[in-house]
């Protein structure tokens, strides 16, 4: 059994490899459910760029570009950060591959997920290019630098941490895309459509990852709780290697697009979904971890209060929007 399990995953303790092998049926079933839930769309469905383009499509793009001039710079910063986060896809494909291995159904999920995620970066890039949102060269340099810098979370080869992180992160990106879209809606409706399509995908990915992590939690509660606690306390969005990331995320925080309060809501929702507070038959160590995890929301609330209290109004500048001053 153990040698069979070892074929399926490249990271993890022997016990973890066995559990990963054990939940393969759940992974396959969740993948099936995911494929049935999804409505596949393509960037060209929203922002067409065909050789034989209709006059209406061209007029729509001209309208979009005209309306996009009215988008405030705070929203542009959020769009840039969302785009850069999506373009970090090579890092995530690699992390999933190295943590979950190259055998079915994990590898099949990684490919399906990557194919879906790839459309997000494509669509956002098509949008910002056709709507003329940025100093595009400056944005491209940031993207290049982010891909080159890499994303190396300290997961210590723990596949459970990858699954806990992706559960949180898919929901966090859903919230970030949906809120960015909402701020665009009354000014430039295509931006809202773009973000709503992406947020819908993130929501379905979130459902997949939380279900798979839930299956692991049932089989291996102590190790799963240990991984979950570490990830929840150290959670950071993936783009922190992007230069200027702290200022970008601070603008996004101040605009109410994504902040510690929203992160706390995500944590609450997941603790409730996994019924962490009600897990029974736990070892003494697992009970301790359970207690610590149940205290995370209060800790996040204190952190949000602290961030709000210390945030004095200040001015930000980003070269991808020509260093225009943003005061927030
Ligand atoms: Fe995405
Ligand atoms: Fe996603």
TrEMBL record:
One of its GO terms (cellular component) is cytosol. Keywords: Fatty acid biosynthesis, Fatty acid metabolism, Iron, Lipid biosynthesis, Lipid metabolism, Metal-binding, Oxidoreductase. SUPFAM superfamilies: Ferritin-like (SSF47240). Binds 2 iron ions per subunit. Fe cation 1 binds at residues 86, 117, 120, 202. InterPro entries: Fatty_acid_desaturase-2 (IPR005067), Ferritin-like_SF (IPR009078), RNR-like (IPR012348). Its cofactor is Fe cation; Fe(2+). The keyword rRNA-binding does not apply. One of its GO terms (biological process) is fatty acid biosynthetic process. Belongs to the fatty acid desaturase type 2 family. Homodimer. PANTHER family: ACYL- ACYL-CARRIER-PROTEIN DESATURASE-RELATED (PTHR31155), STEAROYL-[ACYL-CARRIER-PROTEIN] 9-DESATURASE 7, CHLOROPLASTIC (PTHR31155:SF9). This is Acyl-[acyl-carrier-protein] desaturase. It comes from Solimonas aquatica.
